[in-house]
Specification:
Layout: E1 2-7, H1 13-25, E2 29-31, E3 43-53, E4 56-57, H2 59-66, E5 77-85, H3 93-103, E6 107-108, E7 113-117, H4 128-145
Parallel strand pairs: 1-2, 1-3, 3-5, 5-6, 5-7
Antiparallel strand pairs: 3-4
Length: 146
């Protein structure tokens, strides 16, 4: 099963999470700006991540998601994550990403996952990369069960 991690990143934090997840999955990590239809051929698992900007995924991530067609991800397992500041109110980009992926036919195999950064630009809080590794192992295990 081919796997792919697609991400957007403004300050490098989301990229670090994406690359960590991709390493565990044995998958490429591709910037959302570079992700195209050719990346979906033979795809069995996709993980999509974005920073939260204005309570939602980044504009580039939203544009990528808006281009997905109904049933385009049918038969594909998926998971979503975001990077966010640790505040009482912060938005939920991962949940919004997960909904769009499911609407495109993907089977969500994990709850949307947040990863936390210090302030607007980061860095990631201590332990977040380890959390990403653990989450990737869970995704890998869940995707192989189906």
């Amino acid at each position: 099963m081919e796997s792919l991690v697609i991400y957007d990143s403004n300050h490098g934090n989301t990229r670090k999470i994406a690359e960590t997840v991709a390493e565990i999955l044995g998958a490429p990590a591709v910037s959302v700006s570079d992700a195209g239809p050719e990346h979906f051929s033979g795809l069995g698992l996709v993980v999509v991540g974005s920073p939260i900007l204005g309570w939602k995924p980044s504009e580039r991530t939203q544009a990528f998601l808006a281009a997905l067609k109904k049933e385009q991800l049918k038969g594909v397992k998926a998971a979503a994550f975001d990077t966010r500041v640790k505040l009482f109110i912060h938005g939920d980009a991962a949940g919004k990403i997960a909904k769009v992926l499911a609407d495109a036919g993907a089977e969500m195999i994990s709850e949307p996952q947040p990863f936390y950064v210090k302030g607007k630009e980061g860095p990631l809080f201590e332990g977040e990369l380890e959390k990403a590794r653990d989450w990737a192992v869970e995704i890998k295990r869940a995707s192989s069960r189906f």
